[in-house]
Amino acid sequence: MSESGPGRIGLFVHPEAARRDLFRAACGESFDRLYLVDTASAAVERMARGAVGLLVLDLAGSMPGDTAQLAALSMLVRTRNGAPTMVLCPYAHTAWLPELLAHGPLQYAILPLPAPQLRSAVEALLRAVPDAQALARQQLLDKERELRDLLTLQRSVQRAMAQVDDGARLAAQVCAALCSYPGVRHTALLRQREGNVAVLAQESRNHLDLVRLLERGEDLLASPFADVFPPLLAVRSGEPVLLDAPEKMGDPALALALHERGVRMVLALPLRGEQGGPVLGAICVMFDRVVQLSREGFACFNSLAQSIGSGLAMSDLKQQNEALAARLTELATFDPLTGAINRRAGEELLAAEIRRARRYGIPLAIIALGIDNFRCVNDAYGYPIGDGALRAVAQTIQSRLRASDTLVRMRGEEFLVVATHTGAAEVRRLAEKLREAVAGTQLPGCDHVTISLGVAHVAPDEGATSAIDRVDTAMRGAKRAGRNCVEVAG
Residue ranges of the GGDEF domain (predicted)? Predict the structure, then answer.
């Protein structure tokens, strides 16, 4: 014979007998009859034999990746058709809540939950509603207000992210936008790079400083709170974390610090650049009240987390592209062996300096220099030693130049110095200083080398090609004159 009338009949579902016994001990007296089952299929069979006033699903011990169990519990929620359903969910593993809410209305309680509070929550769901129509009207008004607030929040975050490609600025604007949601007192964005988690930005309405609270701003996974604080748990697990009472973390000092700042609930969501991608960080939202998030609330915050994660990923990509472009520019500009700029870049620089000197009437000089008998160095010691000699000579010259001077590798063992704000007498003294410095430099693996130099003052109406030809001729004249000397261009 089937039983009729749900009354205060309860059905509790959990695979472990110990959990079932704990629930019976805490809440058994609240029911006229309480059934305890271990599987979803057993729950279906029980409900087929008679109406159930309250279905309680305990997610403690559930594995986030157990899709079969999630599907079975979702089916149970769906078969309730709106009848009272309660889900008990550990605060560190709340990913299933929005999934279950998608299959029907339910109330949830965050674990751990002391027996008296659990019993009160159960009693509230079992209690008869005195005016069902009034309750329905109030629920409709509450839903309209919630949807309006969620839409406003979504638009605020979208505006904050619009046309922002810098990660730090994006994080700051997003945190400020999230703080506009009713009840939110503090928001923070944590960023993970190469295993290091740091506070990238935060916005506070309650004078809470997350860096001070966690006693560090970087390397947060090494913090003593890494296993209990919601945003750090979200980074580690890659799952949403919902904490409805700071004391549930099990750290009295941390809980007290949050309570003193008026924090009653914390929602943390992992950030990813794409679905299934690596965790880039977490967004942390602290409330001054406990909010029973609806399906739409979870969906909105999850959607915002996805958008923020995508924004961070795009910012990272932009930075990587800029770094690559800078590297390519460097490779196209600098000689990799000596560190001097290459001939093409040097000729462009000289042409620009000539235009500037002509426009402002400032002196400009150039020096051409070549290592004497460099082919003999290569023949006697080999090309690796020759390359080392080239680097040493270039470094010696570079160390004697002013910040405004530029060293250019023109070809092989020949270089050019572009000396701005330098007259004819000054460039001759600079050339002599360079000649003496190179002659006195001990080279790795071989004897000393000398250089021959040509100097030229660039005339106001002279072009870059003409100036280079003149100074190059002077350098070759210095070599013919016996090497290790300076020749002034005619």
Answer: 362-490
Enumerate residues 6+ apart whose C-beta is below 8 A from 85: 54, 55, 56, 57, 76, 77, 104, 105, 106, 107
**CA 365 to centroid of chain Cα atoms:** 48
139 and 107 within one domain: no
Which residue range is the domain that position 248 belongs to?
Answer: 133-319
Number of structural domains, the chain? 3
- How many residues can be counted in the chain? 490
For 8, half-sphere exposure in the C-beta direction (CA atoms, 13 angstrom radius) is: 13
- Write down the pTM of the prediction: 0.71
- Helical spans, DSSP H, in 162-228: 167-178, 210-213
Q: Measured over all CA atoms, what is the biggest interatomic distance in the chain, rounded to whole angstroms?
A: 122
Query: Is 143 a residue whose pLDDT tops 70?
Result: yes
Q: If you average pLDDT over residues 83-102, what whole number do you get?
A: 94
Q: Which residues make beta-bridge pairs with 193?
A: 196
Domain end call among 127, 144, 177: 127
Q: Which pLDDT value is given to residue 133?
A: 77
* Closest C-alpha among 103, 98, 25, 15 to residue 60: 15
> Mean pLDDT for the chain?
92
Same structural domain for residues 207 and 141? yes
Q: Give me the residue label for tokens 């330098």.
A: 422
Contact indicator for 111, 88 with CB cutoff of 8 Å: yes
Q: How far is CA 225 from CA 186, 188, 244, 253, 255, in A?
A: 18, 16, 17, 11, 11
Please say if the pLDDT value at position 19 is more than 80: yes
151 in a structural domain:
yes
- What pLDDT was estimated at residue 4? 42
pLDDT band at 6 (very low <50, low <70, confident <90, very high): low
Whether residue 2 lies inside any domain: the answer is no
Residue 398, both tokens = 């570079």
State the pLDDT at residue 131: 67
Token pair, residue 286, equals 């602290």
Q: What is the pLDDT of residue 53?
A: 93
What type of residue sits at position 120? Answer: S
Q: Residue 23 and residue 30: Cα distance in Å, rounded? A: 11
CATH of the domain at 60: 3.40.50.2300
Answer with the one of 253, 286, 319 that is the final residue of a domain: 319
Amino acid at 454: G
Least confident interval from 138-142, 209-213, 334-338 = 138-142
Residue 478 belongs to domain with CATH number: 3.30.70.270
Return the structure tokens found at 238: 């890659």
Same structural domain for residues 385 and 268? no
Q: Is residue 447 part of a domain?
A: yes
